[in-house]
Amino acid sequence: YEWEVSTSKRLHEAVLKACGYTGLGLTPDSKTVYAVGTDRKIKEIFEAQQIVREVSITPDDVQPTAIALSHTGKSLLVGTSKGTVRSYSFPISKPDDYTEYIGHVGMVNRLRVTYQDEYAVTIGDDGIVILWTLQEVGIAKKEKETIYAEEILITKTDLEEKNALIRELKQRVSELREENDYQLKLKEMNYAERIRDLTDKFMQEMENLKTKHTVVTGEKEKEASRHAEQLHDLTEKQLKELQDLESSNNQKLMLEYEKYQDLQAKTQKTQEDYERQLTELENRKEEEVSQQRLQFTAQLERIKNELILTPF
Fold it and tell me: What is the dotted CATH code of the domain comprising 2-137?
């Protein structure tokens, strides 16, 4: 938008919804505006209402963020999202006809050229303000220097008053310097005293910590020794109990083995006695059977003989 400041009236506008403008620059005659925005193009706007030309920024990953023209109207500067500043020949003939200078770490937010085209000032996202010497990049305007006379016309009374004022100011400056030196000396003495006190306090605390550390270390060593002794006693006790248990088990095992041997001997003897008794019983039975057979045989012979002798 172009506004008339005195009446707060809007005179012209060049609205482009697809582009959000981030920087503007005016030609020396203030008739043409050069603008950059989010669509990555440098726009030439005539009388703030008609876009007469657009130049694309290359490469594609670079976004123009600020723009300024030299007062001579021969060069155009563009700040980028990469933190660089580009110097285009003006008017722009080719999009890639520029010289690029590296300055900021982040994006360039603002870009201005001083009145006599001696410097360019940039402000970036990195919080740094850079003052560029435009004469080094061939942009500075070379104008004839104004020659000033060394003589000054002044009355004697004014000169004496000024000289007296200068002497008074010099005296005041000297007094202020002495007062400042005195105050600085007092502060240095106070700081030295505080440093000495803090150093003494620190040393005392350090000694206390060393003593505490020594005590804690001694207690730790005693505790470790006590634990080692307890562990040794416990190990010896467990070993003795294990040996006693093993000896007791061995004795029990021997007693059980002896019982087993006795039991086995008794079993063997019982088995032998049983077999002997069984043999004796069998022999006795056989003898009784033999005697009964003999008796039956004798009786049978006697009966046969009686039957033969008895007449029918």
Answer: 2.130.10.10
